[in-house]
User: Fold these one by one.
Assistant:
Number 1:
Amino acid sequence: MRFREFGGYATSALIAGAILCSIATPNGEVSRHMSAGPRNADILVRMFPPEPTVMAEIKKGSAETLRIAILGTLGAVILSIPLGILASETMVARAVFRPVRTLLAFIRAIPLILVAMLMVGAVGLGPLPGIIAVAFHATGMLAKFYAEAIDGVSRAPIAALESAGAGPLVRLRHAIWPQMAPVVARDTIFRFELNLRESLILGIVGAGGIGFYIQTYVRSFQYDKAASVTVAVVVMVIAIEAINVAMRRRFT
């Protein structure tokens, strides 16, 4: 009991020390933040009113962003189905699911921006590297969710089919899938929403989407046009979130 109390105090002390070290900013940094106030105010003034003449670019960028999110999610689902089965201790032996889970953890550890930059270098500019990057990065999370959904089902129907001599695929189809389908639908919708949000910034590294126009306008000091694109991004995210909430309620 005393050891647990000491461990709790030590953990709290480490967290508090990390927070204090993060807050303790050098004086030069504080002065820079203070002097940036007028420049930030000038940028905000130049953003209003938003420039409405960029609607064509907004439509093109929004369509490209949706395409990246949709196709990236589709690719992740296709990859996650077999990987999720192989990462499930219910379906395969320990010698199989342990390495697969390690692989999925490795995929999740790679930042999406880094994957997008590598794909841009490999296949060039445009939405294709964004689609590949989103599909690759989302697979690490989605396959893990699918494996957890398989492992979280009731064991009774599985045991009944096993006693009847059913194989893994039969157990998956008739005992596991009916129980995990709502969870899979919920997790897939959640990941699509996350993919859409991440797709908004991929244009910064040349991987397509509406983020490309935000980068272009900010770098050319056209803050009123950047404001228009930002408003479109906010509207798109709110609309997609509302749709996803309605879909999650339907499937759960």
Number 2:
Amino acid sequence: MALSTEIEWTDATWNPVTGCTKITRGCDFCYAERFAERFRGVPNHPFESGFDLRLRPERLLQPLTWKQPRRIFVNSMSDLFHREVPSPFIHSVFDTMEKANWHTYQVLTKRSSLLVRYLRDRYGERDAPRHIWLGVSVEDAKNVIRLRHLQSANASTKFVSFEPLLGSVGQLDLTGIDWAIVGGESGPRARPMSEQWAIEIRDQCRAAKVAFFFKQWGGVRPKSGGRLLRGREWNQFPKTRESAHLQAAE
């Protein structure tokens, strides 16, 4: 677990799984892969095996040792719903999140259909607890289907990360969505984000009363272009009991 992070919309990261494989063009220049592969072959380094998928059972209970409430990004270096992550291991991750319920967890996936199936199997007709936020990544109009999957999921708090935003997503149905994040790609091969793509999402969020967070313009480095959209920062979070508690503690 990283006690701090430069990701603006979270406080900490927890990686009981690391590594992943590419499934759409939003994965092409993955920041996590770029970081992990720098250490491939380094003896005894956590990323000695680079970005190969690895379960980290020794990390499963880490949030229980962290007593101050935090927003925790779950698997910033992987995807919990990767097909090669066994269901019993995902159960263990959710068991910890349910036990350490003073934290708020942000679980983000591109495998949206597997997310829906898992939540249905675990919770039946109930929704996942409100302190476990479930989200999907959408990089362009082609992948808006992930948002539709999320809308059908048994989740109390739902969010969408439009990062890296690689094209217009068009007209959105944001029914049931609590939060949207927008960000441009970063890294040496970053693809530029049009201001209009970000504005069309912001305006739809405002109309639908969905919290909107503008993370970055991106560029060679994440902070290259700054965080201002039309002259201001957008740092909204979902209005939940857990987020109110976290803001009071900050």
